[in-house]
TrEMBL record:
This is UDP-glucuronate decarboxylase. One of its GO terms (biological process) is D-xylose metabolic process. It comes from Carpinus fangiana. It is a single-pass type II membrane protein. Its main location: Golgi. It is found in: Golgi apparatus, Golgi stack membrane. Belongs to the NAD(P)-dependent epimerase/dehydratase family. UDP-glucuronic acid decarboxylase subfamily. It is an enzyme of class 4 (lyase). Pathway: Nucleotide-sugar biosynthesis; UDP-alpha-D-xylose biosynthesis; UDP-alpha-D-xylose from UDP-alpha-D-glucuronate: step 1/1. The keyword Lyase applies.
Length: 343
C-alpha cells in the first residue's frame, strides 16, 4: 500500500481532500449520526451510491430501520444502535452529525434529552473527530435565528431567540452545538463545517411528526381537514430533501467552514401551503384553524447567496415539483397502517 488512492480499503486514516487529482476519489469511511431519520437516510443513500463506506449511529428515537432496510446486506453499510450522549470509539474520515429530533412535537417531548443530545452528543462527536482527525459537519438549523427581526435571514444575523421558552431546548441547544463546533475548530484544529438547515420535506418524514408538510399531506390523504395553526399568515420556506443532501455533501467536500444557510428561498404562508397541498392531492380538502403554539416564528426565508457563491449550490426543486414526490411514499405507509388496524 503506497498511501495513494487505491481500490483497496485504506489502512491509515487520511483526508478525502488530500487525494491527488486525477487518480480518482478514494473511498471514504463516513459516520452519519441520526442516519435512520428522514434527512439522514437520504444522505446515507447518496454516500453509498457514490461508493463510500457508511456507519450509521442512531438510537431510533425518531428514526426507523425501515428507512434503511433496503441497504441491509450491503457490506459497505453498518447500522449501530447507539445514543450519541454516550462516548463511542470509531475510525472514520468524515462525520455527518445529524442526531437530534427535528420536529417541534418530538423535541419538546423530552426537552432535557434534546439539550443533552445537542450538547453532550455534539461534544462526543467533536471529541471523536479530534482524536481521529476526521472532518466534522454539524446540521444546525434556521431556528438559531429565532423569531427573526431581519428578513430574509443572512448568516451574519445573530438571531432573536427566547432562552427560556418551549423551543429553547432545540434552538439554544443548536446554538450551543455551533459554539462547541467553532471552539473545537479554533482550539483543537478540528476541520468543521456548519449547515443551517431551513424547513425540509420529502419521502420518509414521520407520519406523526407534527411538522406542517407531513401533517397536511397525511391529512389530505386521510380525507381529514388540514390543520392551520394561528391565522395561517406565518411564512416558511420549504426545501425538497434531495436539494438539502446535495448541499450537505457539497459543504463537506468544500474548503469552507460556514455557517451556510441551506434552504429554498421560495416563501409561503401556511394558507398558501394548504392550497398547494389541495392542488396536489385533493382539491376538496377543507381547512380547520387551531390555536398556534408558543414562540412560533412569524416568518422565515433563507438568504442563500453565500452558499451559491462559495459552494456553487442552490435548490433545484420547487414546492410544486417536490410535493408530488412524497405523496406515493405517504400513501403506501398510510395504507399499511390501515391494514395493520384491520381496516
Ligand atoms: P429526524 O427526527 O427524522 O432524524 C433525527 C435522527 O436522529 C433520528 O433517526 C433519531 O432517532 C436520531 N437521534 C435523535 N436523538 C439521538 C441520540 N441521542 N442518539 C442517536 N440518535 C439520535 O429529523 P431530520 O428531519 O432527519 O433532521 C436531521 C437533522 O437535521 C437534525 O439535526 C435536525 O435538527 C436538522 N434539521 C432538520 C430540518 C428539517 O426540516 N428536516 C430543519 C433544520 C435542521
Ligand atoms: N469522545 C468520544 N470518542 C472519542 C474521543 C472522545 O466519544 O473517540 C468523547 C469523550 O468521551 C469526551 C468528549 O468526546 O466526553 C470530548 O472529548 P475531548 O477529548 O475533546 O475532551 P475530554 O475527554 O478531554 O474532556
Ligand atoms: N403548522 C400548521 N399546522 C400544522 C403544523 C404546523 O399550521 O399542522 C404551522 C406552525 O404553527 C408553524 C409552521 O406551520 O408556523 C411550521 O411548523 P413546523 O412544525 O413544520 O416547523 P417549524 O418551522 O415551526 O420548526
Amino acid at each position: 500500500h503506497n498511501g495513494q488512492a487505491s481500490a483497496h480499503y485504506p489502512r491509515t486514516l487520511g483526508k478525502v481532500g488530500r487525494v491527488p487529482a486525477g487518480i480518482g476519489r478514494r473511498r471514504s469511511r463516513i459516520v452519519v449520526t441520526g442516519g435512520a431519520g428522514f434527512v439522514g437516510s437520504h444522505l446515507v443513500d447518496k454516500l453509498l451510491d457514490r461508493g463510500d463506506d457508511v456507519i450509521v449511529i442512531d438510537n431510533f428515537f425518531t428514526g426507523r430501520k425501515e428507512n434503511l432496510v433496503h441497504r441491509f446486506g450491503d457490506p459497505r453499510f453498518e447500522l449501530i444502535r447507539h445514543d450519541v450522549v454516550e462516548p463511542i470509539l470509531l475510525e472514520v474520515d468524515q462525520i455527518y452529525h445529524l442526531a437530534c429530533p427535528a420536529s417541534p412535537v418530538h423535541y419538546k417531548y423530552n426537552p432535557v434529552k434534546t439539550i443533552k443530545t445537542n450538547v453532550m452528543g455534539t461534544l462526543n462527536m467533536l471529541g471523536l473527530a479530534k482524536r481521529i482527525g476526521a472532518r466534522f459537519l454539524l446540521t444546525s438549523t434556521s431556528e438559531v435565528y429565532g423569531d427573526p427581526l431581519e428578513h430574509p435571514q443572512k448568516e451574519t444575523y445573530w438571531g432573536n431567540v427566547n432562552p427560556i421558552g418551549e423551543r429553547s431546548c432545540y434552538d439554544e441547544g443548536k446554538r450551543t452545538a455551533e459554539t462547541l463546533t467553532m471552539d473545537y475548530h479554533r482550539g483543537a484544529g478540528v476541520e468543521v463545517r456548519i449547515a443551517r438547515i431551513f424547513n425540509t420535506y420529502g419521502p420518509r418524514m414521520c407520519l406523526d411528526d407534527g411538522r406542517v408538510v407531513s401533517n397536511f399531506v397525511a391529512q389530505a390523504i386521510r380525507k381529514e381537514p388540514l390543520t392551520v395553526y394561528g391565522d395561517g399568515k406565518q411564512t416558511r420556506s420549504f426545501q425538497y430533501v434531495s436539494d438539502l443532501v446535495d448541499g450537505l455533501v457539497a459543504l463537506m467536500e468544500s474548503e469552507h467552514v460556514g455557517p451556510f444557510n441551506m434552504g429554498n428561498p421560495g416563501e409561503f404562508t401556511m394558507l398558501e401551503l394548504a392550497e398547494v397541498v389541495k392542488e396536489t392531492i385533493d382539491s376538496s380538502a377543507t381547512i380547520e384553524f387551531r390555536p398556534n403554539t408558543a414562540d412560533d416564528p412569524h416568518m422565515r426565508k433563507p438568504d442563500i447567496s453565500k452558499a451559491k457563491e462559495l459552494l456553487n449550490w442552490e435548490p433545484k426543486i420547487s414546492l410544486r415539483e417536490g410535493l408530488p414526490r412524497m405523496v406515493g411514499d405517504f400513501r403506501n405507509r398510510i395504507l399499511n397502517e390501515d391494514e395493520g388496524k384491520g381496516l
